[in-house]
Each structure stands twice: as C-alpha cells, then as structure tokens.
Amino acid sequence: MSIAIQIVNKSHHPLPQYATIGASGMDLRANLDTPMILEPMDRVLVPTGLFLAIPENFEAQIRPRSGLAIKQGLTCLNTPGTIDADYRGELKVILINLSKETQTINDGDRIAQMVFCAVDKAIFETVIELDTTIRGAGGFGHTGKQ
Fold first, then answer.
1. In the CATH hierarchy, which fold is given to the domain comprising 6-118?
2. pTM of the model as a whole
3. In terms of CB atoms within 10 Å, which of 2, 19, 92, 95 comes out highest?
C-alpha cells in the first residue's frame, strides 16, 4: 500500500527514499550549516530541512538507524518519535550520544529513519469494572521466567 505525502524540501539534499525494495523506513539527513559536536550523553535537535503534510489517520515515526547506534552510539530519544498529521513545522530529530567518545554530525549525514503508519482513533467507553484475564494486573516482568 502506498500513501501520497506532500513534502517541501528546504535542504540541498535529495528527498528521503527507500534504500531497498523491502525497506520499511527512509533515511533522514542532517541539514546543517556547521557540524554538530556531541559529547558523551549530550542531546541535540538536528534539523532536516523537510516539511511534511501527512494525510489524516497517518503518522510518521522517527526511529534510530541501527548502524549509527551500534557503530557510534548515536540514537534517537523519544523513540519512536511521532510526527502528527496536523504538524507543519520542520522535521527535526532528537539525537543523543550514548558512547564514551565525542561524536560529530555533519551536513548530509543519515541520522534517523522515517516510517509511515496508519493510526486508529480510540473511543473510550467508561465501565465500572474490566473483564478478567489469566494475567490480570501482573506486569513489569510478570510474564517472564518464573
């Protein structure tokens, strides 16, 4: 299934694209005038120069790139980040340096990936009591090894 996404590209980089026919996400690139330096545990908001008009009942999810995470210790905070259908500002990515070394983000670096997902709207139904299940209220490791 494909959806049409309106996009304004104010960067000098090509539009995001799928790297392979089976790819779920498109790489996003940093749009920077000067490199960003991240010390260990620093976090920054990295601009992309992209602006989207996402159709109603869809969202864009911003996710880490696995290679960036394992090789450089850079990952996304607030992950997956959600870009709502009614947001029209610049798409920016929150990155954090979880490595022990200083990391540099340069203009054009692939910093995250973007996946489009359908969104169902919830309608709450107030009740006095919930139905019971075998699990019940058990959580936080409840279904793991006993």
1. Deoxyuridine 5'-Triphosphate Nucleotidohydrolase; Chain A (2.70.40)
2. 0.88
3. 95
**Helix, strand, coil % over all residues of the chain, rounded to 5:** 5, 40, 60
Which residue is listed with tokens 């699990």? Answer: 135
What is the C-alpha separation between 62 and 112, in angstroms, rounded? 7
Exposed/middle/buried for 143, CB within 10 Å: 0-12, 13-18, 19+? Answer: exposed
Task: Check if the beta carbon of residue 30 is closer than 8 Å to that of residue 103.
Answer: no
pLDDT tens profile 32-86:
999 999 999 999 999 999 999 999 999 999 999 999 999 999 999 999 999 999 9
- Side-chain-side CA neighbours of 95 within 13 Å: the count stands at 33
